[in-house]
UniProtKB/TrEMBL annotation:
Residues 59-81 are annotated as: Disordered. SMART domains: LON (SM00464). Residues 6-224 form the Lon N-terminal domain. The lineage of its organism: Bacteria, Bacillati, Actinomycetota, Actinomycetes, Kitasatosporales. This is LON peptidase substrate-binding domain-containing protein. InterPro entries: Lon_prtase_N, Lon_prtase_N_sf, PUA-like_sf.
Amino acid sequence: MTTVRLPLFPLNSVLFPGLVLPLNIFEERYRAMMRALLKTPEDEPRRFAVVAIRDGHEVAPSAPGMPDPTARPERGPAAGFGPDPARAFHGVGCVADAATIRERADGTFEVLATGTTRVRLLSVDSSGPFLTAELQELTEEPGDEAGALAQGVLRSFRQYQKRLAGARERSLSTGAELPDEPSVVSYLVAAAMVLDTPTKQRLLQAPDTSSRLRDELKLLRSETAIIRSLPSLPAQDLTRAPTSFN
């Protein structure tokens, strides 16, 4: 079992391998994390782990009286996550490699990272200025009939995109060629679909690529049928990951 200890970055969203993650860092615990990552030699990856929050808050209260007028704001690396932070997070996350960490004049950071490898959360340490975690790296097994399933998912995903564009009364403009490698397909579709965090988390921690693709095929067919019955949906760019304010 290969384990690694990395800084831990909790989010109210799920990061998948291969997907880009832009971050706007302003909380002190995450600023301390970025300062530590900047000390990493330039020829080594600046890695941290992203986990989706099961229970808690992405941003701790930053002023007295919020949200409880009688309570003092929480401080420290585990603020907002309870006495046992590990219980506040989903058990499988994704390692992120920070290609860009840019410090602004006010001490906040602009970060651009990419998801790389899935990891299982083994333990969380809150004794330092930011959370760290012991993690087990998870291999991506293909499973049975991954290639055929990937082709089916791609066909259904194109129909899903068309239905979604039509429901939003906008044109579908995607000049980029979709990949055909099964695991890449599975992660791209999981990230691009409009799904709640528990469903995305389920896709992230699927036991193998084929299982993830089978789940996505069912979801795509179901969601496409639902969209077909809707007159319109509010405009939203679904292919861009939102900036997370931490």
